[in-house]
Amino acid sequence: MADESTTIKQLKDAVEKFEQERDWRKFHSPKNLAMGIAIETGELLEHFQWISGAESFEVEQDAEQMEQVRQEMADVFCYLLNLAVVMGVDLSEAFWEKMEINGAKYPAEQYRGKYKVDE
User: Fold this and answer.
1) What does the alpha-carbon distance between residue 79 and residue 37 come to, in Å, rounded to a whole number?
2) What is the pLDDT of residues 109-119, one digit of tens each?
3) b/e 74-111 (16+ beta carbons within 10 angstroms → b)
């Protein structure tokens, strides 16, 4: 199933089903899931530690390393989806709200090509 044909609801349902089949909800407090996101994000970051920004673009050329990165990205995403299920968060709604906030906070005409506005 590809991004183009999979909904966030389908992904959340899959994570919830996986959790229910194992009776893991009792372990999946918001705190534990948020910690899981941080831990898995750290594992993802390990693949980029000690290399330059330019070199980080080359990671995808190494099939073995790219597969490891892909798996870590999936771990982070699974934890995030599960946290959204447990906390009743509509991720699409939250995403679009945050994009609107970011658009107002960082107007394209002021921030195009730079990460901060000159003072």
Assistant:
1) 6
2) 999 999 888 75
3) ebbebbbbbbbbbeeeebeeeeeeeeeeeeeeeeeeee
CA gap 76, 47 in Å, rounded: 14
Q: Which amino acid is at 74?
A: A
> Is there a contact between 66 and 60 (Cβ–Cβ < 8 Å)?
yes
d(CA 68, CA 59): 10
For residues 19 and 79, the answer to whether their CB atoms sit within 8 Å is no
pLDDT tens digit sequence for 49-81 = 999 999 999 999 999 999 999 999 999 999 999
**C-alpha span between 30 and 88 (Å, rounded):** 11
CATH 2.160.20.10 for the 3-88 domain, yes or no: no
Give residue limits of the domains in the chain. Answer: 3-88
At 10-57, the pLDDT tens digits run 999 999 999 999 999 999 999 999 999 999 999 999 999 999 999 999
First CA to last CA distance, the chain? 47
